[in-house]
Amino acid sequence: MKTFYITTAIDYVNGSPHLGHAYEKVLTDVIARFRRMMGDDVYFLTGTDEHGQKIQQSARAQGVEPQAFVDGIAPQFKEMCARLDISNDDFIRTTEPRHKQVVCNLLQQLYDKGEIYKAEYQGYYSTRQEQFLQEKDRNEDGTWPEIFGEVTEITESNYFFKLGAYQPWLIDYIKSHPDFIIPRYRAKQVLEFLSEPLNDLCISRPKDRLEWGIPLPFDPDFVTYVWFDALTNYYSAVADKPGLWPASFHVIGKDILVPPHAVYWPIMLQAAGLAVPQSILAHGWWSVNGSKMSKSTGNFVEPIEFVDNFGVDALRYFLIREMSVGQDSDFSMDQFLVRYNSELANNLGNLVNRTLNMTNRFATAVVPPAGDPGEPEAALQALWEKTRDEVIPLFEEFQFNVGLERALAFITATNAYIEQRAPWKLGKSEEPADQALLQTSLATMAEALRLGTSLMQAVIPGSVDKIRGVLGYTAGHVWRDELNWDDRLQGNAVAKTCILFPRPEKKA
């Protein structure tokens, strides 16, 4: 089996989960589930980033210790994963001993090699972003962009990592590895960033300014700054698991591609003599109702509350169906309800219940044997083979929204087949030929339902399991074997009904 190690970014625990967190988890979960279905040995990591100045300040504002503060918020992210049916194998917290030890080992190794040095720094610092700034970061009028908040000029000693020494290597690596950054057009963005000389990277903060961090192993008066702490989680989680490193995919938001993941991280690994991840997949941003998400204005989607109202698979489906991986997209209740009603309830849900209802009505709730296929049956089977052979490559290229569209088109065609064959009319006939055709049509409906939904398994796993259950079917261990049209459902007892996607009332 091929090892496939995939990660999300770890979420900063200075606030509750939002739609962007949910999307990244669901997207990564769909990739992980699909790779498992394709036969890979998948290991899926997510987690939380729990150090830094913002957390120290928030903890003080609440009158609690930082550890108690993060212990109160990290479980919200774990709960979100559980509620979204995320199949992660591990959840790492950067406050765990296993992570801290690997970070310290890595820092000591690089310090011993001369890759880390101490120097005095004088310049501008953004507390909000927890980063030093340069003149090029200013607006044209000399002011600082609002994103940086209050900017102060400071002078202090810190430790620096020799980032610039590896700039030529990284440029060559990106140019010679076209799949390192996905979508590929984002590699141009990284190379543009690398067209200017890289400054060495400040990797520490003095303890008198920031206490909440991992102490440097070679100087306990300083703590590790975000890069060697947060980024190292991808490696620290599997450092004791042979065969998993390097990661196959890091799935991240486009805002943290440059410089953290596409510049700092590969250079850190190269300096430490560790392999670079195969690929970094940068996804887009979600807006809500055409505007930036904002809790203060109420323009916000709370994932767990949404799941409570509409079900987990409805949210998973919409997130994957609506966004083209790598591009931005907008979440609106109106568009969600269009997808929910037209595609899930009226199309897929309708097919499920028509199949169950007519099998109960005309075949004593048992899937009958199919006779020789006529032209409509042959056409539907041919469409299935075409759909299957198109969807798998689309999923392999992360075009899940297009793959879902093709799968839904097959469901639509199956509903059209039912209208054409009209089993309710055949059931009224006493002609042997009509009765034989009725049996064939019922068997065809059930098999098409089984097959069509098998393509949605990674996206709406709970619903697919329920559909298999009401068809009296247990899937085998080899997913590709599930994609062949045959008579495996013959003789199965089916349920009377199954309401997967009840019609919701519009909610704000």
Would you mind describing this structure in some detail?
- Strands 1, 2, 3, 4, 8, 13 and 14 form a seven-stranded parallel sheet that branches. Strands 6-5-7-9 form a four-stranded antiparallel sheet. Strands 10-12-11 form a three-stranded antiparallel sheet.
- The protein contains 17 helices and 16 strands.
- With 508 residues, the protein is an alpha/beta fold.
- The protein has helices at residues 19-37, 53-62, 66-83, 97-112, 167-176, 186-193, 226-230, 233-236, 257-272, 303-310, 312-322, 333-362, 375-396, 400-421, 423-426, 432-454, 461-470; strands at 3-8, 11-12, 41-49, 90-93, 116-126, 131-133, 151-161, 181-182, 201-202, 204-206, 215-216, 219-224, 249-253, 279-283, 286-288, 329-331.
- The two termini are 46 Å apart.
- The chain has a domain at 332-483: Isoleucyl-tRNA Synthetase, Domain 1 (Orthogonal Bundle), CATH 1.10.730.
- It is elongated.
- InterPro entries: Anticodon_Met, Met-tRNA_synth_2, Methionyl/Leucyl_tRNA_Synth, MetRS_core, Rossmann-like_a/b/a_fold, tRNAsynth_Ia_anticodon-bd.
- Keywords: Aminoacyl-tRNA synthetase, ATP-binding, Ligase, Nucleotide-binding, Protein biosynthesis.
- Its EC number is 6.1.1.10.
Please report which band the strand proportion falls in: under 5%, 5-15%, 15-25%, 25-35%, 35-45% or over 45%. Answer: 15-25%
Structural class: alpha/beta
Radius of gyration: 27 Å
* Beta strand count: 16
Protein name: Methionine--tRNA ligase
EC number: 6.1.1.10
GO molecular function: ATP binding; methionine-tRNA ligase activity
Function: Is required not only for elongation of protein synthesis but also for the initiation of all mRNA translation through initiator tRNA(fMet) aminoacylation.
